[in-house]
Specification:
With about 350 residues, the protein is mostly helical. Helix content is about 50%, strand content about 5%. The protein contains twelve helices and six strands. The chain has helices at about 1-25, 50-60, 65-75, 90-95, 105-120, 150-155, 155-175, 210-225, 235-245, 270-285, 290-310, 340-355; strands at about 25-30, 40, 140, 190-195, 200, 340. A three-stranded antiparallel sheet has the order 2-1-6. The protein has a three-stranded antiparallel sheet with strand order 3-4-5. Helix 1 packs across helix 2, helix 2 packs parallel to helix 4 and helix 8 runs antiparallel to helix 9 (about 235-245). The mean pLDDT is about 95.
Length: about 350
């Protein structure tokens, strides 16, 4: 598969260059599957770090100084989010800087964001709350508040590692059902009711949100790769990974899942598949008897993505687009599109297999 990986990686990196020329100083969100035109945002929203991360991966791939400068400039534009009240700072600042290597300015911005997140943690609740910067109630526990946040907080010293562990384990407590529970086995979002002191499941996203399951699996994999985070809970984390893999059909189900597993005939989500592939590559680097199986399944997923959901040189659309990503199925928003985070995780997985990136550090 090495030659195929090389070709797919080259196409993804060329797509990054085409996107950069199109969007300029703005941030891409999702691209139309018909012509590859991007819908963009000026500030990046929760996805801005994935665009910066893609630019850093391209800079590694080409080794060109102009590409490094473009990645650094994009990362600098994320700075206003450092003080924003949102747990998606994990997604923004971890994935926007982790591939930057020894770039001092990226490291300094990551450290600043980590300290800000640590200051915003709620010890009584055991989490960094979802926050209100993106709208909605502040006291939410959502699975997409965990990936990126775990390694970001872990870099903020001993207090940060403890907060990262608390944040992750509290989400595992809330989001994963226990044997015999009447409720769904997976609850991607819960709100805290101050009047009762209880957490209540939210209707949106739905329990079958496949990207939510992928996000949580990724967070668990990252924690297992950081000895300071499990804090003696290695067994609990491996059990959580096994539950997500087994109940989610990660090894036995369709390589590309539906966006909502409760609607198997609905739109697919290639971004969930790409996130899962990265999580499996990380889990393959942790001790355990299934490491080889995880690595093989990751490669199977990547093969399906690049063979069946990837644009070639057809003269109509740019090559290297990862299609069939689903931004929001319930709102019918960008349900068959190229998504910037899907591109990022596909690029990261291919870069790791190509020896360009260390999957244990990004």
């Amino acid at each position: 598969m090495s030659a195929a990986i090389g070709r797919a990686l080259a196409a993804v990196m060329e797509r990054v260059a085409v996107t950069a020329a199109e969007v300029g100083p703005r941030f891409p969100l999702y691209a139309d599957p018909a012509d590859g035109r991007w819908t963009t945002t000026g500030r990046g929203s929760w996805t801005g770090g994935f665009w910066a991360g893609l630019l850093w991966l391209r800079a590694r791939y080409t080794g060109a100084e102009p590409d490094r400068r473009a990645a650094a400039a994009c990362t600098a534009r994320l700075e206003p989010w450092a003080g924003a009240d949102t747990a998606t700072r994990g997604l923004i600042f971890w994935y926007g800087t982790a591939a930057a290597g020894d770039d001092a300015e990226a490291a300094a911005l990551r450290a600043r964001a980590a300290r800000a997140c640590l200051s915003a943690c709620e010890p009584e609740l055991g989490i960094l709350p979802w926050g209100d910067a993106l709208g909605g109630p502040r006291l939410l526990a959502r699975v997409d508040a965990v990936p990126g946040t775990v390694p970001l907080l872990a870099g903020a010293g001993p207090g940060g590692a403890a907060a990262a562990a608390a944040h992750l384990h509290r989400h595992l407590d809330l989001c994963l059902g226990r044997p015999g529970d009447a409720a769904p086995w997976f609850r991607p979002a819960l709100g805290f009711e101050t009047a009762t002191g209880r957490w209540q499941p939210c209707e949106d996203p739905p329990p079958g949100w496949s990207r939510g399951q992928a996000w949580l699996l990724l967070a668990v994999a990252d924690a297992l790769l950081r000895p300071a985070v499990p804090a003696g809970d290695f067994t609990r984390l491996t059990e959580a990974a096994a539950l997500l893999i087994t109940r989610g059909g990660v090894l036995t189900g369709r390589p590309v899942p539906p966006a909502d597993t409760g609607r198997p005939d609905g739109p697919l989500d290639t971004s969930a598949a790409a996130i899962t592939a990265v999580a499996l590559l990380k889990l393959a680097r942790t001790p355990g008897p299934r490491a080889e199986q995880y690595a093989l399944r990751a490669e199977e997923i990547l093969d399906r993505l690049t063979r069946s959901h990837f644009t070639g040189d057809d003269g109509v659309r740019p090559p290297g687009m990862l299609l069939d990503g689903c931004y929001d199925a319930a709102k019918r928003l960008a349900v068959r599109h190229e998504l910037v985070w899907g591109d990022f995780f596909l690029a990261l997985a291919l870069s790791a297999l190509h020896g360009l990136a260390d999957i244990t550090r990004v």
